[in-house]
Structures are given as structure tokens and as C-alpha cells.
Design goal:
Blueprint lengths: L2 H20 L11 H5 L2 H4 L4 H4 L8 H4 L7 E5 L5 H10 L4 E6 L2 H14 L4 E5 L12 E7 L8 H11 E14 L5 H4 L2 H5 L8 H10 L3 E10 L10 E9 L3
The structure holds S-adenosylmethionine.
Length: 247
């Protein structure tokens, strides 16, 4: 499958999700209870529905990233902005959060959410995670929530993450990986790809890609098998991975 086709399908899928959240007449694509499964009541309190309705992650990377005041955080595939807003709170006014997303509708939703919440230490940038609109050696912590599986070029993504991190910087991602190969017909189904399954790598390959990008201390912090049925039964796992860029 061509990279351009994949990006187009993914962008259309998430553009539609953002439109449904912002539409006056929509019943939204909200997955009931999804945000509540990933985030604590305390984290969700005070967040508008236009943030929580569009949550599409598979983890809670900010909870594990032990963010500190003053840090610069980058969120890959920031969606409606939930992890950026939680990170912004953790790093405070002396810190800064950058969210990057390639879907214009999602970006607009995140920017509107920031304005609504009057959060001033978050900036949302349009861009692809394979070619980050971020300077070299400028970020303390990179987070990402269920996005890298969607990329047709994961090696490039992790090289980019390495480039933008400061020496000693950390990456902490939640993502979907495969425990066994999926049939070609499933992998080539664009709806399955956009649903964070078709593009997922085998777990060992995913970890090897991070090591190949130059990272040290590549570690699975936690892992949970994803409950799927049919062809996908026992094939998918949600993992949280951390890694360091050496000093
Ligand atoms: C599954 S959603 C996750 C959104 C958010 N991280 C969350 O937890 O709710 C995937 C997001 O990543 C964006 N995305 C997917 N592939 C991307 C890429 N190659 N570059 C930049 N953004 C991408 C999509 O537009 C979408 O907003």
C-alpha cells in the first residue's frame, strides 16, 4: 500500500471524528466510558466535553512521564489535545507543550479547546510525525498516545524523536503492537489501519526500531492484551514504552 493512500485514509478518519465533535447536530463518535478508562476522575475534571469526547488513545503517557515544572514536552499526534492539557498543567507556566498533528480539523479542535480553557503554555502545530516541525535538541520529554502505529514509516518517526530530544531527554509512548502477524487482507483494510490495528508492528520490531534510532534503556513499562475477537483474537497488545537519549 502506498504511504500517500495511508495518510489520506488516516487524515480522513480523524478529520471526520473532529468534525463530529464540533458539529452542532451530531451525536458524536464518542466511545462511552473510553476517556474514563484511561484517565482518573481528577485528571478529567475541568476538561470540556470537546476534549474528552474525542479521546482516542490507548494509554495515559503523561501519568508515567513524571513531568517536572519548566520542561518542554512534545506530543505526537495530539488529537483534541487531552495529553497536551494534562502535560501543560504538570510543567506549569515556566514550561511549554507542543502538540503536532497532521489533520487540520483535529488541530483546529485542539486550538479551540486551548482557547476555551485559557491554556497559554500549549502550542498546536500542523505537521507529520515523520518530519516534525520542531528544532533539534529542544525537547525534554516526547509523549504519544496511540499514534505511531498509524505511521507507515515508524523508523523515521523514532529518528525524528531522537533528533528533537535534548541529550538526556526521554520518550514515553502508549501504543498498539502485534503479538503475531495479521493476514494481508486485514492489514490492507484502511478502516482497520485507521482504527490503530492494521499499521501496528510486531512488538519485537517496534522495540528494535526504537533501539535502531539510537535510544538507550528501551523498556516496556506495562502491557495489556487487547480484547478482540475473530481474526484479531490474541493478536494485539497495548504497551507503554520508555526510552532515553543518552547525554
Ligand atoms: C488515535 S488518535 C490519538 C489522538 C490523541 N493522541 C489521543 O490520545 O486522543 C491519532 C491522532 O494522530 C494523528 N496522526 C495520525 N498519523 C499521523 C502522522 N503521521 N503525523 C501526524 N499526526 C498523525 C491523527 O490525525 C489523530 O489526531
Amino acid at each position: 500500500m502506498k504511504e500517500t493512500e495511508i495518510r489520506k485514509a488516516v487524515r480522513e478518519h480523524y478529520g471526520e471524528r473532529a468534525r463530529q465533535v464540533t458539529s452542532c447536530c451530531s451525536t458524536t463518535t464518542r466511545r462511552p466510558g473510553h476517556a474514563e478508562k484511561l484517565y482518573s476522575r481528577e485528571e478529567l475534571s475541568g476538561l470540556p466535553q470537546s476534549v474528552t469526547d474525542v479521546v482516542a488513545g490507548c494509554g495515559n503517557p503523561t501519568a508515567l512521564a513524571s513531568l517536572r515544572k519548566g520542561e518542554v514536552v512534545l506530543d505526537l499526534g495530539s488529537g483534541g489535545g487531552i495529553d497536551c492539557f494534562l502535560a501543560a498543567n504538570a510543567v506549569g507556566q515556566s514550561g511549554k507543550v507542543i502538540g503536532v498533528d497532521m489533520t487540520p480539523e483535529m488541530l483546529q479542535l485542539a486550538r479551540d479547546n486551548a482557547e476555551k480553557m485559557q491554556v497559554t503554555n500549549v502550542e498546536f502545530r500542523l505537521g507529520e510525525i515523520e518530519s516534525l516541525p520542531v528544532a533539534d535538541n529542544s525537547v525534554d520529554v516526547v509523549i504519544s498516545n496511540c499514534v505511531i502505529n498509524l505511521s507507515p514509516d515508524k523508523a523515521r518517526v523514532f529518528k525524528e524523536v531522537y533528533r528533537v530530544l535534548k541529550p538526556g531527554g526521554k520518550v514515553m509512548v502508549s501504543d498498539m503492537v502485534l503479538l503475531r502477524e495479521l493476514p494481508e487482507s486485514v492489514r490492507n483494510d484502511m478502516a482497520v489501519w485507521a482504527g490503530c490495528v492494521g499499521g501496528a508492528s510486531l512488538k519485537e520490531e517496534y522495540l528494535a526500531t526504537i533501539v535502531a534510532a539510537g535510544f538507550k534503556e528501551v523498556e516496556i513499562v506495562s502491557e495489556a492484551a487487547s480484547a478482540r475477537t475473530g481474526e484479531l483474537a490474541g493478536a494485539i497488545s497495548s504497551i507503554k514504552v520508555s526510552a532515553l537519549k543518552a547525554n
